[in-house]
Amino acid sequence: MQLNIKGGTAVILIPILFVSVFLLNMQGKGNNQITGSFEEKDLQPKLPIEGRIVFQSNFDGDNEIYLISDTKIQKLTDNSWDDEYPMWSPDGDKIAFMANPKGNYDIFIMNPDGSEITPVTSFSSDEKTHSWFPDGKSIAFTRQIKKFLGRKLGLFRVDIDTKNSKKIIPRYTKNHAIPHVSPTDPLVAFTGKRMFGWEVAVYDMRKNEVKFLDEGGKSCRSRFSKDGKKLVYVSTRADKKGEIWVMNPDGGRKTRLTERKETYDYFPCWSPDGKYIAFNSSHQGDHNGDWNLCILEVASRKIFLLFDSPGNDVFPDWH
C-alpha cells in the first residue's frame, strides 16, 4: 500500500501512535528536558507532504516552533523561553504563536522563516489558544477574565495593527476557550464548559447565537476545514480517551476517524485540500508522554507517522 501525499507516493509506515478532553490537556505541554542522542541533524519527516506544517516541540529542552515543508524540517525559533501553538495566517505570509519571554504568555507573529518577530498582545495570560480571522487583520484568542470569586475563560478578538481587543461573544458568562474561526462563514468554533465536562460549540457572529454540537461534556478542540464545510474535533465519548472525529458545522453527520485502543489521538488540523488530517498521538496520553506527529487519510482512515522526536511534537497547523 502507498500514500499519495506529494507528487509521487510514500511507503506506509507503522504508526507509533492522545488524552483527557478537559482543561488539563487544553493547555500546552510542559518544557521537560529531553535527553538522548537525538540532534537537529535528525530533523527529517518520515514522508513528503504538500504544503507546510508548523508545530512545536520541546526535544531540545524547551518548546520551539518548527516548520515541515516537502522533506525538510526547519527550526524557526531558538531561545531560552517557550514558543508554542503556531498558526498560519490565511494567506500563509505570517505565523501567530504564543511565547513567554516575560513569564506569562502573549501572542506574537513572525514570518515563515522565523524573522521579524512582533508582539501582538501584552495581557500576560497563560491561555495558549488562538485563531486568525479570515481577513488576516485580527486574531481570536482565549483570555482569563478576573471575576470576584476567581477567574473565567473567555474569547477575545485583537486587532493586529491597533492592538485593541474586545470580547467575541457579548454577555456570555460561561467558561469558553480554544477558538477556531471559519474561513468562509461568520462562525467561531470553541470549547465550552457544561455542567459536566466540556463540549464543542459554534458561535454565529451574525445571529449572535451559541449552539453546542455534542453532548455529555466529552468533546473539545474543533477546527474548520479550509472550505468551512467540516469540523474535526476530539471526543472521548466512545472509549473514554481522545479520538479524532469529524462533523458538519451544525453538529450533523458525526463520524469517528480513529479507533485504536492503545493510543490517545489529539490536536487535529486539516490539510489544505481536506483529504488529510494532521494530529498528535501518544501511548501515555499525559503531559509527559512522547507525543508524535501523524497524518490521517480521511477517505481510507489510514494513519502514517510523519515525525517523532524524543519530546512532545504537538499543535500542528497545515497551510
List keywords for this structure.
0% helix; mainly beta; four-stranded antiparallel β-sheet; Neuraminidase; 319 residues; 26 strands
Walkthrough of the structure:
Strands 5-4-3-26 form a four-stranded antiparallel beta sheet, with no helix packed on it. With 319 residues, the protein is mostly beta strands. Helices cover 0% and strands 45% of the residues. The model is unreliable at 7-36 (pLDDT under 50).
CATH class descriptor: Mainly Beta
**What is the number of E strands?**
26
Radius of gyration: 18 Å
The average pLDDT score comes to: 86
The helix/strand series, from N terminus to C terminus, equals EEEEEEEEEEEEEEEEEEEEEEEEEE
CATH topology: Neuraminidase
Kindly state the percentage of residues in helix: under 10%
Strand order of the largest sheet: 5-4-3-26
Low-confidence stretches: 7-36
Q: Give the name of the CATH architecture.
A: 6 Propeller
Number of helices: 0
Number of domains: 1
Name of the CATH homologous superfamily = TolB, C-terminal domain
